[in-house]
Amino acid sequence: MGLLNSLKKPVNIKTSFPRFSGGATGSSFTSSSHPIKLRSFQELPPELFAIAKPIFRLLQAQVNKVYFQSSGAEAAWNIKDSSGHIFEAESISLIGSHIIITGSSFGTMDVSIIDSPSNINQCSISNVGEFLQFNYGQLSVTCNDFALLEEFKRLCMISIFESVSIYKALTGTVISSYGLRMSDMHVILNSAFNFKDWCEVYLDDQGWVKVWCHIDKVTKSNSDHEAKGKYQIRFYRDDKSTSRKNCVFFIPDNEYVQDSFFYNANSTKPPKSMNEFFQGLQMIKLVGNVRFCGDTDFNDIMDGGSIYSNANNGSGDSSSAALHNESPNTTPKSRTFFSPKGHKRNGSHVSSLTSRSTKRPITNFTTSSKGLLIRPLPHHGVNHLEAMIRFIVPLMDCARLYGRPVQFKTDRTDINSLMFGLPKLPSVDYFAQEEIAHLMTQDFNPLKEKDTDDTMALTMSRFSSYLQERMTKLSKRNTELSFRTISDVMGVCNPTRDDTKAISIGNGNNLAKELSLSEKSNISSDTADVMNQFQVNARKYQNTMRECPLVASTSPLA
């Protein structure tokens, strides 16, 4: 009773915070240097731009990177669209994560091999007969040179690996740099509280659907703290019941989850500025298996809680209508911030220590390996990046990713780190040219150690394992092997950004000047230093609060 009574007492939080020193820029950050009450909640802190700039440039470079080029003079290429029509292609290229095909009968086709407005949650590469099929039939490609077709497939997988890896590093950077200004970040990192909040998830053939999410990190019995399958991420139709009948889908911690990171699948073009990019960074991509409850009626969910759903199955980004016409920051007219039954939303919640998971296991389910796209709902007075941080950290804790729930791993040589394999500027490649040559041979099997049928999960698992082997065997690979640099990849002509007219993306000389200072630094070490310092200060702040009980309702989102 004494403990329960103490929890009811208000918490006196000290106004002086520990100093955040060090970091990538060499400057010292203190919470008093950017007090939340003196800043606009929608204003992104300049520290975020300063620390994330090198990784943002890596992302821009990856968009321009030419992974593959072939013309009809080299081999005969044929393509098949989603309707089954077969066309002869004059040329085929892979630039960034986009397949660009030209032909006299159809002009130019641009198809993304990762999530984009025209193929959200449809990332897939598979061999179907003589064709290499992308996005579950959105595009199929064949070639009279099957060795060249296999090379094209593997280079597509390398492109996916590099794109996802950069987003993972960006996620760690955002969490650490933006987390410096969140007054209760120590609670998010160090507590065993469960997490509850509204979010949107993307369901195939349904679109974005609003659901009530529980991320249960604790159980009733302390002896079960390390028991597999006891901690679960559950999504419910509404916040009125946590019964099995109300559950739509769930992910226990004994299920396969490969990665989880911040993601931007809204844009069809490379972002022009960091502010534009971060304003559009509103999704969380979970790569792995999801268990859908066997008695789920998706029409019932859509009738009660649909936001909007006009999924498009067009043949390419440049020729298909976008899924949304709204900008990332525009609220659709049909959107309401109410639960599916019309009750007003009360914001996010963190459960109290006495409200712990005692849920019975769900045994009637089907497993999907396509993962999830999650969009945390914005809160009044809270920046969307802060809402995403509050959501993704408990998610990583439950899935046991990147060293969580103990501490984020930040070593670029650690396969379980968000920063794993991060290139050192001016290099922009995760794999050296010599290593890529090996990845094209029969000695490397991309299907080895197959844990899943999902292309993105398989790619991240297999290529991460190979990169870890190379980094372990050759400690000086960054200086002894050949890597492409910023100047090698910028200024590439992309024929799809203005229909059939080729234009240049970016300016290699200007970008090289802009990165002149960054080239002298190790971006992987800089970002890791920021993340390490962020965690150290969170623990220091937690220690200063040990004499004061923490009450869940004191959270600004409660």
Query: Describe the biggest sheet?
Result: 11 strands, antiparallel
Specify the structural class.
Answer: alpha+beta
Measured as a percent range, the helix fraction is 25-40%
Average pLDDT, to the nearest integer? 73
Distance between termini?
A: 24 Å
Please state the overall shape, judged from the principal axes of the Cα atoms: globular
What is the number of strand segments?
A: 24
Percent range for β-strand residues: 15-25%
Q: Give the number of helices.
A: 13
Radius of gyration: 24 Å
Low-confidence region ranges? 1-41, 220-226, 301-358, 492-521, 545-558
Biased composition (Low complexity): 313-322
InterPro entries: Skg3/CAF120-like_PH
Protein name: Skg3/CAF120-like PH-like domain-containing protein
Domain Skg3/CAF120-like PH-like: 182-251, 366-420
Keywords, please?
single chain; 558 residues; alpha+beta; eleven-stranded antiparallel beta sheet; five-stranded antiparallel beta sheet; globular; Skg3/CAF120-like PH-like domain-containing protein; Skg3/CAF120-like_PH
